[in-house]
Structures are given as structure tokens and as C-alpha cells.
Amino acid sequence: MSANGPVLDVRDLRVWYGSTRGAVRAVDGVSIQIRAGEVLGLVGESGCGKSTLGRGVMGLLPDGSAVDGQVLFQDTDLLKVSDRQLRRMRGPDIALIFQEPMTRLNPLMRIEDHFSETITAHEPKLSKAEVRRRSLEALGGMGIPPTRFRNYPHEFSGGMRQRIMIALALVLRPKLVIADEPTTALDVLVEAQILSILADLKRNFDTALLLITHNLGIVAEACDRVAVMYAGRIAEEGDARTVFSQPAHPYTRELLRSVISLNTTGLHYIPGAPPSLIDPPAACKFHPRCPDAMRVCAQLAPVEQRLSAGQRVECWLHGPGDRIPEGGREPLEQERIAVAEEA
Hints:
Elements: E1 8-17, E2 24-34, E3 39-43, H1 50-58, E4 65-73, E5 76-77, H2 83-89, E6 94-97, H3 111-122, H4 128-141, H5 158-170, E7 176-180, H6 188-205, E8 208-212, H7 216-222, E9 225-230, E10 233-239, H8 240-245, H9 250-257, E11 304-306, E12 312-314, H10 333-342
Parallel strand pairs: 3-8, 3-9, 6-7, 7-8
Antiparallel strand pairs: 1-2, 1-4, 4-5, 9-10, 10-12, 11-12
Helix pairs in contact: 3-4, 4-5
């Protein structure tokens, strides 16, 4: 990897799940980059493929799935390395913070044993004293006192279990952290503490972070860039401040309008629901729900465009004009309303 090259470079990644109804195209040609010391927020509604993208990078997909494309970690294609080599990289190189800690912590093991197993698997020559010191340091950074070190998972609250999971992911100081809803079930004070810790990780260790979340407030607070995912595709990506202030894709704009603030006087929502990834709509997958949908949106898949603000967006509102057929700019109002009423 060059000095200024990305830590993670995902190129045209596709992930399919097998099902009795057909292939589920959970990730359908996604390309993203994350550099050292950078936080990329990945947002979108449930069912858009965000968690599948994170697990696809880690090589943690279930049996029956298929993967294509490239996942370059410091110039090493993770889709081509052996399972054994990939297991060695998980922890010291790449770490994943899971969304549901109670399903990831072994109820029969003390917290001490979880940390000992994680550290010694990658650094077997460390003494027990050093393993304990590093474990307590990681836990202390998450606000867990040493007196709880020998407790079992069921003796902790949901928020404390989540902090333990984060400490386990960070104890080996990985170069890339994929955080899948790391603040789920946490109160705002603990959430603020975790965001502060992630900021310290970025600042002190130059860690690259992919933050998967539904919370747009967290993205605005913690992320350098944001990628908006819909139906397995990246609809828009750019600098977080620019995307929040000048959303280029109608989906991004509608997501931001749905956020509740102290000034909210009425609820806003996007009509309908994300499409089935087995049989998604033709052309632009968002067009049945889009308030700005045009005829071309139901005829041709949008072409990625680079905007002057540095964003990249897949939307016919931004062209290219020479590819829009005659009559393609006519609105799709009747079709959009019909879909909204069915939902």
C-alpha cells in the first residue's frame, strides 16, 4: 500500500444469498474506499445490505452465499486469501463490532476468558500478566471497572455488554474497524463516551473506521464521509457536511427529512418500503418511492455522476442528459402514488 493509499478499497463487490425463491442480491456492485484515520458512515434503511457489506469485507458470510469483486486491504485481496490467513488477520488487522453482544459473548465464559482467548490466539507468547494488563486497559477505556473482570456476560446490562464487545474488538488495535450499529441499546451518555473513544482511536492510532448505523446524528457527529446505501447499491457518497447540507439524491434528502429534532412539528416518512432484493424494481431501484421520479428512472439504471461538491451520485436528476431518451424527463407521479398506497 502506498503512503497515501486507502486502507480498505472495495471494488464492485457483489454478494448473493441463495434462497428457495431465487438469489438475494444483498450487495450489488458496491465500491468504497477508507483511508487511515478516516471514518466512513454507511447509512440506509434496514434491508439495504449494510451489514452484509460489512460481513462481506470480513469474510463472515454464511454458507450458500456467493461473492464477486475485490476487497483490497492494504493491497491484499481478502477474497483471494485462504481461510487460515483471513482468520489470522481478524483481530490485529481488521475487527468487527457486532450489533447484538448477547449473541456474541459465550454465556459459559467469564469476561476474563473472552479477552484471554482473543489476545493469546494472535500473540501466544504474551505472559498472563501482560494479557491481563492489556485486557483491563481495554475495558477501562470503555468504563468497565477491574472488579467486573471475572463476571459472566449475564451479569452485565445490555449497554455494558456492548461496551465489552467494543473493547474486545479494539484490544489488538486493528488498522480497520467495522462497527455494525455499535451504539445500539445504549443511553446517550454511554453513546457519547463510545463516540469519544472511536475519535481517540482515529486520532491516536490512525485507525480506519467503517461505521454502519441508522443514526444520522452519529454520522454527522463522528464521520468524515458518508455513503448512503439503498437496495444493495451506493446511491450517494461524499463529505459528510456536504451530503447533509446539499443532498444530491432524493433518497438522501428524504432520509434527512425523516430525522426528528427539537424543532419537529410533524413526522415525515418515505412512502413504501425498501424493495425485495430477490426481485427489485427495474432500472433505478428507488423510483417507485421517489418524489422526483421520471420516466427514464423506470427504463434505465442510473449512471454514476461526479458533482462539483465532491459527491458521487447515481440519479438521473444529475444526468448525463445525452443518455436520457425522448420523453424520459416526464414525471412518474401515478406509478409512485400507486406504490405508496399499496405500502
